Amino acid sequence: MQNMPDWSDFRYLLEVARTGTLTAAALRLEVDHTTVSRRLARLEAQLGCLLFDRRRDGYTLTEAGQALLSHAEAIESSVLAAGEAIGGSGGTASGPVRIGLPEVFGTRVVTPNLPALLAKHPELSIELLLYHRFPNLASREADLVITLDPPTSGRYVVARLADFRYQLYGSPAYLARHPPIKEARDLAGHDFVDYVQDQLMSDELRYLERLVDAPRRVFSSTGMLAQVDAASAGIGLAMLTPYSLTADCGLVQVLPGTVYSASTLWLAAPADLFRLRRVRVVWDFLRQLADRTPSWFGLPETGQAMAADTQPMP
Question: Do 137 and 151 contact (CB within 8 A), yes or no?
Answer without folding.
Answer: yes
